[in-house]
Automatic annotation (TrEMBL):
Lipid/polyisoprenoid-binding YceI-like domain location: 114-281
Family matches, as SMART domains: YceI
Record-linked Pfam families: CarboxypepD_reg, YceI
Protein name stated in the entry: Polyisoprenoid-binding protein YceI
Family annotation (InterPro entries): Carb-bd-like_fold, Lipid/polyisoprenoid-bd_YceI, TTHA0802/YceI-like_sf
Tree of life domain: Bacteria
Protein's organism: Friedmanniella luteola
Family membership: Belongs to the UPF0312 family.
GO molecular function, one term: carbohydrate binding
Length: 284
């Protein structure tokens, strides 16, 4: 560097340099914290300006950053590293925001094979609007399923069965009503069933068109599906993780009970928002 010249991110020997403290959070694409992630900022000359480690909540702080251009690097075990060009602003504090790391799974699809759901580490939940004000959440506690990943991933299939009486919302009176003929009618229809025999690309993820049988009525249902990655477990197996969402109209499944409490206001909304998070174990 010649006398009188300066490049952003490079300290000038003997000069007082105002510094900035950077704050941010490292998370997965789904918003979960990535504990232990390393965050580093390099100056324009490639020298390290600051480095820190994300805590259990994914948050990090980098002190002593000079203003100017640089490169921000983020890395964590089992995740794909990330690099980006940044401009550190002048001032006492810089909010970096959320830095998202994807799990290193090798590909964007799991290895072919038969995967069985690990129900102890999976959830099937639903939310409904209540009185036009709040949201009531519930989940099914008993279910089973299989995911068959074909070598041609578009020909993969999913089969799942849910015990209707296992619905829980945290309120015994409401749970009994949901199990009654007004809703799930569990005595006549003890299970819900979902089947899909193809997979399609959709946006940044996948779309799973299938058929849901609920309270004796079968209707087409589309799940927006994300593959979250695969990896070994402590018992010598291989697991894959998936999340999916869908919106169901109660009327499509003849779940028409409701009670008006005012003009345009009913006890339960007409739409159910379903969220599914599963771990599945590859079978030998």
């Amino acid at each position: 560097m010649s006398a009188g010249s300066w490049s952003p991110g490079t300290r000038v020997p003997g000069a007082a340099v105002a510094t900035t403290a950077a704050h941010g959070r490292v998370v997965t694409p789904e918003g979960w914290p990535v504990a232990g992630a390393t965050v580093t900022v390099l100056g324009a000359d490639g020298a390290q300006l600051a480095s820190g480690t994300a805590g259990d909540d994914g948050r990090f702080t980098l002190d002593g950053l000079p203003a100017g251009a640089g490169t921000l690097l983020v890395a964590a075990p089992a995740h794909a590293p990330k690099a980006m060009t940044v401009v550190v602003p002048a001032g006492p504090s810089w909010t970096v925001g959320e830095l998202r790391l994807t799990r290193r799974g090798g590909t964007d699809v799991p290895a072919p094979g038969l995967y069985l759901l690990d129900t102890a580490h999976s959830t099937v939940s639903a939310k409904a609007h209540h009185l036009g004000l709040a949201t009531v959440s519930g989940r099914f506690t008993e279910f089973a399923g299989a995911i068959t990943v074909d070598a041609d991933v578009a020909r993969s299939r999913v089969d799942a069965e849910i015990v209707a009486a296992s619905i829980e919302t945290g309120n015994a009176q409401r749970d009994a009503h949901l199990r009654s003929p007004d809703f799930l009618d569990v005595e006549r229809f003890p299970t819900l069933r979902f089947e899909a025999d193809r997979l399609e690309r959709g946006g940044a993820g996948w779309v799973l068109p299938g058929r849901l049988t609920l309270a004796g009525t079968t209707r087409p249902v589309q799940l927006d599906l994300s593959y979250l990655g695969s990896g070994p477990d402590p018992w010598g197996g291989t697991r894959a993780a998936f999340s999916a969402t869908a919106e169901l109209r109660r009327q499509d499944f003849q779940l028409n009970w409701n009670q008006a409490v005012g003009v345009g206001i009913a006890v339960f909304g007409t739409t159910l928002r379903v969220t599914i998070d599963v771990e599945a174990v590859l079978q030998p």
